[in-house]
Design goal:
The complex is a heterodimer of chains A (311) and B (550).
Chain A lengths: L3 E12 L2 E12 L3 E5 L6 H8 L7 E6 L2 E2 L11 E4 L11 H11 L4 H14 L15 H13 L5 E5 L7 H16 L3 E5 L3 H7 L2 E6 L2 E7 H5 L4 E8 L5 H6 L4 E7 L2 E6 L2 H15 L2 E8 L3 H9 L6
Parallel strand pairs in A: 3-8, 3-9, 6-7, 7-8
Antiparallel strand pairs in A: 1-2, 1-4, 4-5, 9-10, 11-13, 11-14, 12-13
Helix pairs in contact in A: 2-3, 4-5
Chain B lengths: L1 H15 L1 H21 L12 E7 L15 H10 L4 E5 L3 H9 L5 E5 L3 H7 L12 E2 L2 E2 L1 H4 L1 E5 L4 H28 L5 H12 L6 H6 L1 H13 L1 H14 L4 H25 L3 H8 L4 H4 L2 H18 L10 H4 L12 E2 L15 H15 L2 H14 L2 H7 L4 H31 L10 H22 L3 H19 L10 H7 L3 H14 L5 H25 L4
Parallel strand pairs in B: 1-2, 1-3, 2-7
Antiparallel strand pairs in B: 3-6, 4-5
Helix pairs in contact in B: 1-20, 2-17, 2-20, 3-7, 8-15, 10-12, 11-12, 17-20, 17-24, 18-20, 18-21, 18-22, 20-21, 21-24, 21-25, 22-24, 24-25
Classes of the chains: A alpha/beta (311), B mainly alpha (550).
């Protein structure tokens, strides 16, 4: 039986006439990195806020570590960390002071706290700037400190809301590595980002949210399967039975023709391309052009949420 | 423990915020300093339109303590001054202090009764003896002759002149009756009459007109004499002795004299009509021969009474102005005497000036409430930096978050209150009054009220601009109503009553008791503290209810 650290059941939340969340149900297993995608205004931040106990849902239930989250169960928050979309650090305090303050709020103290502070500072690459005012830091350094603050108290569940927004590639890479390291250490992570490649690389399972509803929630491969893998090709003087011969190639699931262009829907591109080349030689047909198109998370995302601009 | 953690963090942030230090500590000090230098000495004192007369009394008093007036003449003058309406007297302890006040321009003039003043007053006389002192000069009293010195500030000529003239008038009122009384006591006395007689001896010849006017008197005398029986006997006796005791002859002669007396009288009368006779007679006698010692004794008192009758509107025997002019005596008025206090302070900063007793508490109270800005910005910054989300996500209750924020604000407010009182003492020489220990509960109570107002403002304002606008308006308006911007004593009574709707007014009432009153009314102080606590608790409760942490 799966061990869920977070279970959301039929969560509804409205802001006046606008339904930010409309019956959202999700479950996140312990130890996984769960991706949460959605266009602007889809309800991601609202969902994270409710899941972290920052916001109360109009209806539905939130279970953290198998316990129903409520105002009275503040103890559950000891195990939750939040990496907010906007920075949430004190610019007039140093990284060490920020970490000490938030560590103490979660009950850490003494040597354990100091050791943990050093560990986290080293992890996010701020050990040499530990005593400088955070307000003087670059955007990337602030982002790394924001992550450090979120994990200083050793949370079991970490919400990361667009943690790499506005940072340079180096900082993004470091954050990325830290997320992987945290997950490797057993931390369950719920990760939202507009960077599809990040989610695709980090999250084996994810949900796509739009207009307050879950459009899809599955493993990454299954989501990718929602779109076809295709090879588009044009040939010189194809024989009359060329269509049948292409459709009969192993691995071709479907064949569509538009004018002189043939589109092969395939299981995998590589084997089919080899077969196609062999068939051209056999039939004496010259391959004029060929383009391949594999499904990506971005294409899946657009496929599910549509191309309309969101404000 | 989380509350302590929160409080320590906010306290650290507040202490690192230069705006807070400037607003809460530096600005009130600068305002106190500027106003302390700019405001006049009278600032903070109850309005008193009476003219202030400053006196240094060095008078040694009377040589004979039992002599008139029975006390130093300087006291007589001071009593007379004190009886004058619309003036207030202050006795300055010494010449040096007076000199300092004049040099600093803090008094337009100071009257100094020198040590010899009583002695010179005693000798003041119209008589021309070597002992007598004539106190009069061209402008009235010649102050130097009476050993009165008037120090004046040349930059305040009008005020100095008024005080000088007032001194003139008062001294005249004291000196003139004393001198007239003394002089009139001499009129008609033996020595006076001897001097008159001696003078009259020189009046020779007696003018014929004067002798002619004596004719009726001579006639009366002759008539009375010749009709007097004893005179007749004397005549008979004289004639008898001249006739060798021949009584008969003597009687005949006397009868002839008696019979011829009318003719003799007529001849005398005619002689007094003849100028050449009278001129010859006048050369023979002088007026002084008539004014014999016995006559002098008879005439002296009569002359005195005559003069008194002639000037019946005055009593020349009096020694006071009231008796001299037959008016009601001017009673000395102790209410017009005031204790001398140097309220102007000393040094560049006017340390110890009375105005600091008003300015320091006023601005301590007003700027205590500027805590609204620091606290407001603290709350706004928590939202702006997104850290409020972290606090809400942490295992903290709303109460812990709010209390954790209240405590450092209270600590800062307390620190500010005590700092300004200490600075007031160290920098400006302000005194802490006779009950300094009561300043502690007052500072605490003021801080409680200030924190209440601050968190209420923070619960309403969402941005730094709102905090600045709401906070500044609120503090300045409440400061104006309460009397923080001006001495409360200058406010109309009705406004004073209205001002009690503000916590600042209660705090100022208590500070006035502790810092301005020699014997503070402890009841007023504790009542004020109680009201300030009530303000603080009610405002905090409102803020608690209003505060939105979401």
């Amino acid at each position: 039986m799966a061990n869920f650290v977070l279970e959301l059941s039929d969560i509804r939340k409205g802001y006046g006439p606008l339904m930010a969340l409309d019956g959202v149900s999700l479950a996140v297993q312990e130890g996984e990195v769960f991706g949460l995608l959605g266009p602007n205004g889809a309800g991601k931040t609202t969902l994270l806020s409710i899941a972290a106990g920052l916001l109360e849902a109009d209806s539905g239930t939130v279970q953290l570590f198998g316990q129903r989250l409520s105002r009275r169960r503040r103890d559950l928050r000891h195990w939750v960390g939040i990496g907010t979309q906007d920075l949430a650090i004190y610019p007039d305090l140093s990284p060490r002071e920020n970490l000490r303050f938030f560590g103490q709020l979660y009950g850490l103290s003494g040597k354990a706290l100091e050791n943990r502070i050093e560990e986290v500072l080293t992890a996010v690459g701020l050990a040499d700037r530990a005593n400088d005012r955070a307000g003087t830091f670059s955007g990337g350094m602030k982002r790394r400190l924001n992550l450090a603050v979120a994990v200083v108290h050793n949370p079991r569940l970490l919400f990361l809301d667009e943690p790499t927004t506005g940072v340079d590639p180096q900082s993004r890479n470091l954050i990325f590595e830290q997320v992987q390291a945290l997950n490797a250490a057993g931390v369950t992570i719920i990760y939202t980002s507009h960077y599809m490649e990040e989610v695709q690389a980090l999250c084996p399972r994810l949900a796509i949210l739009d207009n307050g509803k879950v459009r899809a929630c599955d493993s990454l491969p299954n989501l990718l399967r929602l779109l076809d893998t295709t090879i588009r090709a044009q040939f010189t003087r194809p024989p009359a039975d060329w269509t049948q011969r292409l459709a009969a190639l192993p691995g071709v699931k479907q064949l569509r023709q538009q004018g002189e262009e043939f589109e092969l829907v395939v299981e995998e591109i590589g084997p089919v391309l080899g077969q196609l080349a062999q068939e051209c030689v056999t039939a004496g047909v010259a391959l004029q052009s060929a383009t391949t198109r594999e499904p990506t998370l971005e294409r899946v995302f657009l496929h599910l949420t549509g191309p309309e601009l969101r404000d | 423990m989380p509350i302590v953690t929160l409080a320590a963090k906010d306290l650290r942030l507040l202490l690192r915020d230069p705006r807070s230090a400037v607003i809460l500590l530096l600005t009130p000090l600068l305002l106190i300093l500027v106003l302390g230098l700019a405001l006049g000495e009278g600032f903070g004192e109850k309005p008193d339109d009476r003219l202030r007369i400053s006196i240094v009394n060095l008078d040694r008093g009377l040589i004979d303590p039992m002599a008139y007036p029975g006390k130093p003449w300087s006291e007589v003058v001071i009593d007379d001054l004190s009886a004058t309406q619309d003036i207030r007297l202050e006795i300055i302890p010494g010449r040096d202090e007076a000199q300092r006040l004049i040099e600093k321009g803090r008094r337009p003039a100071v009257i100094i009764f020198e040590p010899e003043f009583s002695e010179r007053m005693t000798r003041a006389s119209f008589l021309g003896s070597s002992e007598a002192v004539n106190p009069f000069g061209r402008d009235g009293i010649d102050f130097a002759k009476l050993r009165v010195t008037i120090l004046t500030d040349k930059t305040q000529p009008v005020s100095a002149s008024i005080i000088e003239q007032l001194t003139q008038v008062t001294l005249l009122r004291v000196v003139i009756p004393w001198m007239i009384g003394k002089a009139f006591a001499r009129v008609g006395d033996d020595r006076f009459m001897e001097q008159v007689a001696a003078r009259l001896l020189d009046v020779k010849p007696i003018p014929a007109d004067v002798l002619a006017e004596l004719d009726p008197v001579i006639q009366k005398l002759l008539a009375a004499l010749t009709n007097d029986p004893d005179f007749k006997l004397l005549v008979l006796k004289e004639f008898s002795e001249a006739k060798g005791s021949n009584i008969l002859e003597a009687t005949k002669d006397a009868a002839v004299v008696a019979k011829r007396t009318p003719e003799f009288q007529r001849a005398v009368h005619k002689a007094f009509q003849k100028r050449d006779i009278l001129e010859r007679l006048g050369r023979e006698i002088a007026f002084g021969e008539v004014l014999t010692p016995s006559a002098q004794k008879q005439v002296g008192p009569t002359v005195k009474r005559g003069v008194s009758d002639l000037f019946s509107n005055y009593n020349f025997e009096a020694t006071t102005w009231a008796d001299l002019v037959h008016s009601e005596a001017r009673a000395a008025n102790d209410a017009n005497r005031m204790e001398y206090r140097d309220t102007s302070g000393s040094g560049l900063l006017n340390r110890g000036a009375l105005r600091y007793q008003i300015l320091v508490p006023s601005y301590t109270v007003m700027f205590a409430f500027f805590l609204v800005l620091s606290v407001g910005w603290l709350f706004v910054a928590e939202r702006k930096h997104g850290t409020l989300i972290r606090l809400r996500a942490a295992p903290l209750t709303r109460s812990q978050i709010l209390v954790g924020k209240l405590l450092p604000c209270l600590a800062v407010s307390l620190g500010q209150g005590f700092f300004l009182l200490v600075a007031g003492r160290v920098l400006f020489g302000m005194t802490w009054g006779s009950r300094p220990e009561l300043l502690v509960p007052l500072v605490v109570s003021t801080s409680i009220a200030a924190v209440g107002l601050a968190v209420l403002t923070a619960s309403v304002a969402r941005t730094e601009t709102q905090v600045a606008v709401y906070g500044t308006l609120l503090v300045l308006i409440l400061g104006g109503i309460s009397g923080s911007l001006m001495p409360r004593d200058l406010m109309p009574e009705q406004m004073k009553t209205i001002s009690l709707v503000t916590p600042q007014a209660w705090a100022l009432e208590a500070y006035a008791q502790l810092l301005a009153s020699p014997q503070p009314d402890v009841g007023v102080v504790f009542t004020s503290c109680g009201v300030l606590w009530a303000f603080g608790l009610v405002l905090t409760a409102l803020a608690w209810w209003r505060m939105d942490l979401d």
